[in-house]
Specification:
about 280 residues; about 20% strand; Rossmann fold; 12 helices; seven-stranded mixed β-sheet; alpha/beta; two-stranded antiparallel ribbon; 9 strands
C-alpha cells in the first residue's frame, strides 16, 4: 500500500469512529481480558490513584473498572460521540474531548493507560508524543501502552472500515522511555484475543517517591527550602552516577517540586524561579 493510501486512511479515522461509535461500544469485549496488564499498571500506586486513559473510547470496560475500584479516572478521546457515550457509561469518571497529540491537562497522574489507541499515531507523531505523555506522570507512576512490534505502518478495520496503525521499533520505544526517566521498561506480545498487539510497560524511578517526601509542615519556610535543596542535590548525584543528562535532572526536579505544590500545598514561589540554575552552579 502506498504512503498516500496510509495518509488518506489516517485522515479518515475520526469519521470512522464517529460513524461507528455505537457499534464499537456495544461490541467491545468487556470480559476484562486485559486484567493481567491492569494489575501491573496499578502495582505500587496509591489506593486512590489519579489515572489518565488516553483514547478511552466509550469508557467500557477499562475506565469503568478503574473508576469502580475508587480511582480518580480522566478519559480523553478525539471522538465527541465516544466521549458522550463514555459519560453515560461511566458517570463516576471524568471525560474530555481531546487529541492525545495535543494534550492540555492541568493534572499530573499516578498512571497513564492507552489501550489500542496510541498506535493510531504515525511513527513520527509517537516519537513526539511519548516524551510529552511521560512528563504527565508523577514520580513512581506507571505507563501502559499497546503498540506494534516493528517500525512501520499497517491498517486494521473498525466495523469493516479501514483504520491506520503506526509503530516504532521495540528498541526505539525502550530507548525513548529510558531517556525520559523510566527505570523499568518492557515489551511483550499479548495474544489474549488474537489481535497481535504488544504491551509496552514502563515504571518511573521507584526510589524517588519515598526520598521525596514533603518536609514537615512544622518547619519554617527556610528549613523546608533547605530540605528541598538536599533532596534535589541527592537526585543530581544519583543521575550523575547513572550517566544521565542535565535535561533529565531539570525535568525530574521540576516534577518533584510541582508535586510538592500540588499535593502538599506549597506556595509556588517558595523556591526562586531560577532554582534549577542555582543548583547547577552550586553542584557542578
Amino acid at each position: 500500500m502506498s504512503e498516500t493510501d496510509f495518509e488518506t486512511i489516517k485522515a479518515g479515522m475520526a469519521g470512522v469512529y464517529e460513524r461507528n461509535a455505537a457499534a464499537w461500544d456495544e461490541g467491545r469485549d468487556t470480559s476484562l481480558y486485559e486484567m493481567e496488564c491492569l494489575t501491573r499498571l496499578l502495582t505500587g500506586l496509591p489506593r486512590r490513584a489519579k489515572i489518565l486513559d488516553l483514547g478511552c473510547g466509550a469508557g467500557r470496560p477499562l475506565a469503568a473498572f478503574l473508576a469502580g475500584l475508587g480511582h480518580d479516572v480522566i478519559g480523553v478521546d478525539a471522538s465527541p460521540t465516544m466521549i458522550k457515550r463514555a459519560r453515560q457509561n461511566v458517570p463516576n469518571a471524568s471525560f474530555q474531548i481531546m487529541d492525545m497529540r495535543d494534550l492540555e491537562l492541568d493534572h499530573s497522574f499516578d498512571a497513564i493507560l492507552s489501550w489500542d489507541a496510541f498506535f493510531h499515531l504515525s511513527p513520527g507523531e509517537q516519537r513526539e508524543a511519548l516524551p510529552k505523555i511521560a512528563r504527565l506522570l508523577r514520580p513512581g507512576g506507571n505507563l501502559l501502552l499497546t503498540v506494534g512490534w516493528g517500525e512501520g505502518e499497517v491498517t486494521g478495520t473498525v466495523a469493516g472500515e479501514p483504520v491506520y496503525h503506526g509503530s516504532l521499533s521495540s528498541d526505539e520505544y525502550l530507548e525513548i522511555l529510558s531517556r525520559v526517566g523510566f527505570s523499568e521498561q518492557s515489551m511483550r506480545p499479548y495474544e489474549k484475543n488474537g489481535l497481535g498487539r504488544w504491551v509496552l510497560f514502563a515504571g518511573m524511578r521507584k526510589g524517588y517517591p519515598a526520598r521525596w517526601r514533603a518536609p514537615s509542615e512544622k518547619l519554617s519556610d527556610q528549613e523546608k527550602l533547605g530540605q528541598i535543596y538536599l533532596a534535589l542535590h541527592d537526585l543530581r548525584v544519583e543521575l550523575h552516577k547513572e550517566g544521565r543528562t542535565l535535561e533529565d535532572y531539570h525535568r525530574l526536579a521540576f516534577v518533584y517540586y510541582s508535586r510538592l505544590v500540588e499535593c502538599a500545598g506549597y506556595a509556588e514561589d517558595l523556591l526562586p524561579a531560577d532554582y534549577v540554575e542555582q543548583l547547577d552552579e552550586q553542584f557542578d
